[in-house]
Write a structure and sequence with these properties.
The structure is a homodimer. By secondary structure, chain A is of the alpha+beta class. Chain A has a single domain (about 5-295), classed as Coproporphyrinogen III oxidase, aerobic (oxygen-dependent coproporphyrinogen oxidase, 3-Layer(aba) Sandwich), CATH 3.40.1500.10. Chain A contains nine helices and ten strands. Chain A has helices at about 5-25, 70-75, 140-155, 160-170, 200-225, 230-250, 255-260, 265-270, 290-295; strands at about 35-40, 45-50, 55-70, 90-105, 110-120, 125-135, 175, 180, 185-190, 275-280. In chain A, helix 1 (about 5-25) runs parallel beside helix 5 (about 200-225) and helix 3 runs antiparallel to helix 5 (about 200-225). Chain A is globular. The two termini of chain A are about 35 Å apart. The interface of A and B includes residues 51 and 281 of A. Strand 10 of chain A pairs antiparallel with strand 10 (about 275-280) of chain B, so a sheet runs across the interface.
């Protein structure tokens, strides 16, 4: 049976519900609110937010499926150089789930996932996405667990996927002006379609497994760290690291730029920003502190798995 | 006597000292730290920061004078279409003072000033700059005072400067994705050189008066508002407005983008960011609240003076 765009967005909508339930259970205090929105030009989404839970300070799990006439900027993209700019009837369909979770306890890491599917009426279709982790304090055991889980998902489908997609995450989640990675990376992939080794269906199956890996990985990381004690100093460091997260998302993140430039729904796009963040002039961690250790680990090409 | 680039940067350095002294006096608790830095390719600067004062939570007053081989991106700018890209000997000199002050009390406004001078070895030279105000709560009396002071400075030099430069501030300090201005504007001007009406010397004199207007204007605004009481709700609103300030500076501000893209001194460039900022999903002010009133006043083309 052929996989249609509607099958895919239905699957994503169910994934959103599944993940929200798992996160609410892990949080224990409260549930995600639910807001539906529609897009004038076609489609819409469901934005679910958890605010001030037990564990989660601010988190969003967003579903969207938008479609209509292909926007002008698509024709300018290098990746779409095959498009005929006079094809004014070209239609697109884009659907995905995006997640960012900012926990209260600085010992629990920030997590981000995005999985998306895109197709056009000319036959172009692909999957993209990834999961990456931003610990305020890098814990080597957790980093190893996180990357091993992702590697297992990848290895089930293709022997090169983990290596390739881990590299892409290292390269993408990099704060150039700070010369540091946003966190410990993860996997990131784009424009996965059929090729000589993998069919469209096989890549769909891989992509689904990435989406399904999110809840068990993050609820395990919550369980491991939620009861750890922390000081005011740890909390201030968390706010500074969140400041870097804001810098990355507003300056470099392609999804954020794309959304803001195309008049997307601002409140959904910027749900990724933390409730509180901080900047201090020329802050330097103390010698041999946990903060300094974390900075040393915010570099590319660490083999965590 | 001809005005040289060294005269201009000496004058700016003195202005920095003068403004820091006036702000320290107004704050009453503490003074600005002082850090000198040099640029490998030529020149350097003096970064002065006030952290956790009585009135000022985080403020920076920065001087810089940098020079050397004209960087490649200059040749790509539309404004420099006269440049010959093969002129590899072209030298530039850029000097300026930049200020951002984030006060503790939400009733005291955030202020920003930048005045800069630029010249090249091919004879190009110009002044640029401006002052703009970002109240967390717009107070009409203060807004009128602020704009009237700027209008007086402009009117002394040229009958059209206030109207023109007020418009440029409205257009520049605009957060497109929020469809709101950053604050109540002020004046903003660029590439002021000699023309049929104003000599280079006359524009230098105007530009100096803008720099000298900063301290009396802001210390008056501090005096008027520093003792006003505020609630936890006012404080939370201040953090949300600071979030918008962060959005403007990281997404739209040309100085920030220019600095980060050219490997400028990151800690000096990002001194403009507040100590604490906040984001809340889909925050809506209460009906007829002071917060709602402020939002209604964050629009272009209000005639404050």
């Amino acid at each position: 049976m052929e996989i249609t765009k509607n099958n895919i967005s239905d699957w994503l909508k169910n994934l959103q519900t599944h993940i929200c339930n798992e996160l609410s259970n892990a949080d224990g205090l409260t549930e995600f609110t639910l807001e539906s929105w529609t897009r004038d030009e076609g489609g819409g989404g469901i934005t679910r937010i958890l605010n001030e839970g037990n564990i989660i300070e601010k988190g969003g799990v967003l579903f969207s499926a938008v479609y209509g006439k292909a926007p002008d900027f698509l024709f300018k993209e290098k990746a779409h150089s095959e498009l005929n700019t006079f094809d004014t009837d070209l239609q697109f369909y884009a659907t995905g789930v995006s997640i960012v979770i900012h926990p209260k306890n600085p010992m629990v890491p920030i997590i981000h996932m995005n999985i998306r599917y895109f197709e056009m009426s000319n036959g172009t279709k692909w999957f993209g996405g990834g999961i990456d982790l931003t610990p305020h304090y890098v814990n080597e055991d957790d980093a190893q667990f996180f990357h091993t889980q992702l590697k297992n998902v990848c290895d089930t489908h293709h022997k090169n996927y983990y290596t390739e997609f881990k590299q892409q995450a290292d390269d993408y989640f990099f704060i150039k002006h700070r010369n540091e990675t946003r966190g410990i990376g993860g996997i990131f992939f784009d424009r996965l379609n059929s090729n000589e080794e993998m069919t469209f269906e096989q890549n769909f199956s891989f992509w689904q497994d990435v989406g399904l890996a999110f809840a068990p990985i993050y609820t395990e990381l919550i369980k491991r760290n939620k009861n750890k004690s922390f000081t005011a100093e740890n909390k201030q460091w968390q706010l500074l690291r969140r400041g870097r997260y804001v810098e990355f998302n507003l300056i470099y993140d392609k999804g954020t730029q794309f959304g803001l430039q195309t008049n997307g729904r601002v409140e959904s796009i910027l749900m990724s920003l933390p409730k509180f963040a901080s900047w201090e002039y020329n802050f330097k961690p103390k010698l041999n502190s946990l903060e300094e250790k974390t900075l040393h680990l915010l570099v590319k090409n660490i083999n965590w798995a």
